[in-house]
Amino acid sequence: SVWNRYLGDHIQSRYLITIAVPPNLPANMSSGISYGLTRLKDGKILCIAPDRINVAGKVKVVCFDKTDILTEQDLGVMRVNGVRNNNNYTVIPESTENIKDDSQISINANDTTQNHPIVVSEATGIPK
Q1: Minimum mean pLDDT among 55-59, 66-70, 73-77, 89-93: which range?
Q2: Annotation marks residue 68 as catalytic
Q3: Which ranges form a coiled coil (predicted)?
């Protein structure tokens, strides 16, 4: 087979690596990360792990925690509440496409391993 032929010969195996990993992939990844860092900096967001920028596009829920309590593996988000002027709690619907204002969001979470509520700090704004 072609696979065995390439693995048996060290010179030929270099061709397989070149075909599998395009030569300009690292340069493209670096330029994309650099562009992402610039966009984050423009938004006054400090990024301490630039290699995580590529993964950030898959994030659906973010919990900000000043007290470092949210380190459990089995933490589940129970519901999301909208907060306006720290006194009007309204449940945000599952589809957040129709939300127009930048009200603060607080997330009520429940530590499923110990069954006690955790107070989560507020995130400012809704991602657009």
Answers
A1: 89-93
A2: no
A3: none
Residue that is last in its domain, among 52, 76, 93: 52
pTM assigned to the model: 0.38
How far apart, in whole angstroms, are the C-alpha atoms of residue 76 and residue 73?
9
Are 75 and 93 in a shared domain?
A: yes
Same domain flag for 114 and 64: yes
- Residue 15 DSSP SS3: helix
Please write the tens of the pLDDT for every residue from 91-116. 555 555 554 444 444 444 444 444 44
Tokens of residue 51, six digits:
């290699």
Q: Which of 9, 42, 51, 65 is catalytic?
A: 65
